[in-house]
Amino acid sequence: MAKYIAQIIVLGAQVVGRAFARALKQEIAASQEAAKRAGGGEAGARRAAANASTGLTLEEAMQILNIEKLDMEKVKKNYEHLFSANDKSKGGSFYLQSKIVRAKERLDTEFKQKQPDPDQSRAKDTS
């Protein structure tokens, strides 16, 4: 009887171990794919830092402010409209207002990263 219990335990541990290994491989593959989509390298690191600082991804921020592409004027217009529409004095939600602010901060970070650094452009000109 003890022999059968030991075999069941060993088989169970093998099944759980294989499932864990498979899940780990899938997670590693998914994170590598996400890194490729984020641009990888220095651009990926900047994007990850911006995501961490605001708590939103670029895509989430664009969805919150209801924009299709990065356009500063559209972002500003939608931000002002949504922020005032969710004003607590008008019966709006402070939570939604804070999400709108965070989305704008995230998009502002993206706009700053897209602008060329003036120090780097001067260094290229002198080369």
UniProtKB/TrEMBL annotation:
Q: Which domain of life is it from?
A: Eukaryota
- What protein am I looking at? Uncharacterized protein
